Amino acid sequence: MVFTTFVNFIRSRGPDEFWRKRKIFKLAAHMYGRRRNCYSIAIRAVHKSLQHATLGRKFKKIHMRDLWTRRITAGAEQHGVSFIQFNEGLHKNKIQLNRKVLADLAVWEPATFESLARLGEELDNYGNIKE
C-alpha cells in the first residue's frame, strides 16, 4: 500500500493486528475452552506450549542417547563384555561407529554385533590387547 500522508500510514494498523492474532489462534486451534477463543488467554497458552515443545526437543535427544546406551550395554553383556570394554575395543581398533548405529546393530544384526563384541574380549582389565 502506498500512503500519501503520514497520518494515513499510522491509522492503517487493522490488517496487521488481524493476521498477528490469526497466527496465535491457529496455534491454539487444538486447545479447549477459552484458551482457543480468547486472545489474551490463548497467547499465554501458546507461549507456554511453545516452551514445552522446545524443552521436548532437548529431552528427546537425551532420552534417545540413553536408550541407545542401554541397548549397546545389553548387547555387549549378552556376549560377556562390559560396555566400557566394548567401547575401548572399538577405539583401539579404530572403529568409529556412533551410538545409534551400534544400537541398531545390537537389535537387528546380532552376528555383526557379536564380532564387534569380540574386539572388546581381546582386551585385559587395563585396556591392553591380550596376546
Automatic annotation (TrEMBL):
Entry similarity comment: Belongs to the bacterial ribosomal protein bL20 family.
The keyword Magnesium appears for this protein: no
Protein's name in the database: Large ribosomal subunit protein bL20m
GO terms under cellular component: ribonucleoprotein complex; ribosome
InterPro entries: Ribosomal_bL20, Ribosomal_protein_bL20_C
GO biological process: translation
Record Gene3D superfamilies: 6.10.160.10, Ribosomal protein L20
Keyword Ligase listed: no
Keywords: Ribonucleoprotein, Ribosomal protein
GO molecular function: rRNA binding; structural constituent of ribosome
Cited PANTHER family: 39S RIBOSOMAL PROTEIN L20 (PTHR10986)
Lineage: Eukaryota, Metazoa, Ecdysozoa, Arthropoda, Hexapoda
